[in-house]
Design goal:
CATH architecture: 3-Layer(aba) Sandwich
Strand content: 15-25%
Radius of gyration: 15 Å
CATH class: Alpha Beta
Structural class: alpha/beta
Shape: globular
Order of helices and strands: HEHEHEEHEEE
Helix content: 25-40%
Strand order of the largest sheet: 3-2-4-5-1-6-7
Largest sheet: 7 strands, mixed
Number of strands: 7
Length: 159
């Protein structure tokens, strides 16, 4: 990774970290290689107990390398690990999941009460009517930066 890519990843990581401060259910979109996983894993460091799910075992191995101590999940459950303080669920490679797994993800988004934060990583938007209404913010990863495409963050009324 050259210096310009390292700088781009640092910028993206900071953008995700700022989004995490104000949103609970986050969707991070981007093409392969734009840093969705690495930047998200680095951004969540120090925020609660990160728990990671990917249908791909290579993804779980990579997550453990980027963020040692992360809780690796082999299946999705509505219940976080018992010893997790402020459990933060990261679900990677959403666009390659079967419909049955997407239904589990949708139900987690509808009732995230046991999870402190939920971050979804995907190459593309998921085609489900029930899915997107349960997302608080969409972050689009680009080659050198990231941008918030949508947010339902309600601002306090000014008096």
């Amino acid at each position: 990774m050259d210096i310009s890519q390292q700088l781009a990843f640092a910028v993206k990581e900071e953008i995700i970290r700022n989004v995490l401060k104000s949103h609970q259910r986050i969707l991070v979109l981007g093409l392969s290689g734009t840093g969705k996983t690495i930047c998200t894993l680095r951004a969540v460091q120090g925020i609660g107990t990160p728990c990671y799910f990917s249908p791909d075992s290579a993804g779980r191995d990579a997550a453990a390398t980027v963020l040692p101590g992360i809780v690796l999940l082999s299946e999705l459950s509505g219940i976080p690990p018992a010893d997790a303080s402020q459990p933060l669920l990261i679900i990677d490679d959403l666009s390659s999941m079967p419909q049955t797994t997407l239904e589990v993800v949708t139900s987690l988004l509808k009732k995230p009460d046991r999870w402190f934060k939920i971050v979804l990583l995907s190459r593309m938007l998921v085609g489900s009517r029930e899915f997107m209404p349960n997302i608080d913010v969409v972050v689009k990863m680009k080659e050198k930066t990231a941008e918030m495409m949508f947010s339902n963050l309600s601002l306090p009324e000014q008096t």
